[in-house]
Structures are given as C-alpha cells and as structure tokens.
Amino acid sequence: MSGMLLRLVCTAALAAGTVLAPVSAAAVPEPGGGTAGPGGRSVAELLTELQTLYRQAEKATEAHNATEERLKKQRAETVRLERALARTRLSLHDSRGAAGRLARQQYQSVTGLSPYVSLLLARDPQRALEQGHVIGQLARERAETVGRLTVGEKEARELARRARKALADRSALTERSQKQRDEVRRRLREVEELLASLTAEQLAALAELERGRIAEAQEELISSGALSSGSTPPSAAGERAVRYAVDQLGKPYEWGAEGPATYDCSGLTSEAWGAAGTPIPRTSQEQWARLERVPLVELRPGDLVVYFPEATHVALYLGDGKVVQAPRPGARIKVSPIAANPVLGAVRPDPGGESLRRFVPPELPAWAAEGSDVGYSAAGAPAAPETSAR
Hints:
Shape: globular
Largest sheet: 6 strands, antiparallel
Distance between the termini: 14 Å
Structural class: alpha+beta
Helix content: 40-55%
CATH class of the largest domain: Mainly Alpha
Strand content: 5-15%
Strand order of the largest sheet: 1-6-2-3-4-5
Order of helices and strands: HHHHHHHHEEEEEE
Number of helices: 8
Number of domains: 2
Radius of gyration: 33 Å
CATH topology of the largest domain: Helix Hairpins
C-alpha cells in the first residue's frame, strides 16, 4: 500500500457492510432533539449510505486482490518462460556448434567414393570397413544433431512467442491493478468525505444504531435454528487455523494486506489456513467459489463464513455463534457475532478432515470483542475535510 493510501485509510474509518432498509427518522432522533443529518438525512439514512459506500469499497478491494493474485502468478510464469528460453537458446547455440564441427569433419574425410566402392578398391579391406563404420557413425551423429537443432529452433520460437504474450498479459494486469487501486481510493475518499461532514454525536448515533441492528440480526439467526446450538469440534487443521487467527487479534485492518502486521478480511483467512498446512485461495470470492460449501447448522470452528451476495467479505468461525474477522479499514481484528454482516453461506477448507474428539477453544483476551464491528467511530473520524490525505 502506498504511503498516501495508508494515510487515507488511517484517517477514514468505514461503515459496516450490512445493507439494511432505513428506519424512519423519528425512530432515531439526532442528539439535541433534531432528526436531520447532513443534507436533511436521518441517522438511519446516513448509516445506509455509509454501509453502501463501504460495500462498494470492499467490492473494489476484493477485485484488486484477485488481480494482484493473477499478477503474482503471471510474474512467476514470465520469469519461468524467460529462464526456459535462455536455456533453450544456450542449447541451440551448442547444437549449432556441434553441427558445424560435424560438417567440417565430414568435409575433411570425404573421398568422393561410396563406402562400397572404397571397400572393393581398398588394399586393406579391414581398414576400409573401419573407416566406413566411422563415416556411418558421423552421418548418424550429424542426423541427430540436425534433428536436435531443428527441434531446438522450433522450441525457441515457441518459447519466445509465449514469453512475449506473458509479458503483454503482465502489463495488462498491472494496468488493471492500478485502475482498481485508484477505484478503491476513490471509494474510500467518498466515505471519508461523508464521515468528515458528521459530528462526533452523529457518529456515535450511527454506531449505536448499527449495534442494535447487529444484535437483532444475531438473535434472529439463532432463533431461526439455522445455526447449531451446539459446537462440533474442528479438525486438526481447523484448530490450527483458529489459533492462528486468534493470535492476530488486535492487529489493524489494511486493504490488500496478508500479514504479519496487518490483514484484510481474506488475507486473514487465507493466511490462517496456510499456517494450518492447507493453502486456500486468496480472495473471499475465490474461497466461496472453490471451497466446499457447508450448511450453517453444520459449522465447526475453522470454517469460513462468507458475506454479501457478491462474496466480498469473509470471517473465520470460532464456534458459539462468533467469528474472528478483520472487519474494515479503521478497525482491528476482533471477535464479532456471526450476523455482524449479512451471511451468504459457509465453506470448509478441509472437508475430508475428521473432527477432533476433544477441543479446548483458545483463551480469548478480555478485549477480544471490543471495538467497532462496523469500522467507524467518533474517535476515528477525520477532523475536517481539508486535513484528509488525498
């Protein structure tokens, strides 16, 4: 992340991704008895706007992450092809040298007569036979060398073509990554500008409204029976992933980060399972698309809970209706209710892993659930629009 973007993220805390229908302005009075925020909008309307802006920013972030993953693989492929091309060209040079030597040897040994005539006219037939054998061997070596030379030239041309294409693909991905990075910056700037227009009291009212909505969503999910009331033990790998994630509690969110000091949402989950010995895709969308899905009622610690219709957010299930997540820019890795965001579904990175017979959950620090699930607060708001980084 550039220094400019880091300052932008640090100065602008974002709203939650939960997009819920606004409630009436009268239901959420403004501090001091008023009901209107900037532009005459109610607190609930402001909350919905902030949530929408954040969701757009996170969608752009995951798109950027996916492009960066493709770019990483494309860089490796370009290097591999360039090295293979260099080896092929060296081999081609050696083959050409060998072909030249054989041609000179053949020229120097040519008698102008066929081996059969040479044998009939030779005073020493045995020596003629030996010379014929040598000539035959030289001919075979020349044929093999010419064959290698032909194959090498063809391989070099093909590798050169693939290397050029890989370089062009890498350039295109780099350009796309830059555009997506600029899109994330633009989305974050929109959130920052809206936050800068709010008072500390309005931000506190937004946070209080969001906490109430999360509590209602959590209660509704539990009472629906969609979430198991018990706790199935994790697999051995799942336990390692859980403990890794818990060890990261308190570290800041940073978009595009994969640790060890900062993480974004999918950076945390992918690194946790990588540390557990089970590499998984980098982005939340790829995790949702490629990992085996499981019903919420069958969740076990270590499973991944994916959020929003576009699968743009992900958290790691701890058990007991809670997840550990890197919530938003402006927030830190924390323990949250599973319903802190609208659940799309769940996936299991190790569907073949057997559940442990006994599992003792890791001890959580007393402050594990503290802080905003939504990534904005009065303390995190920028002081004024003109002080914000651009």
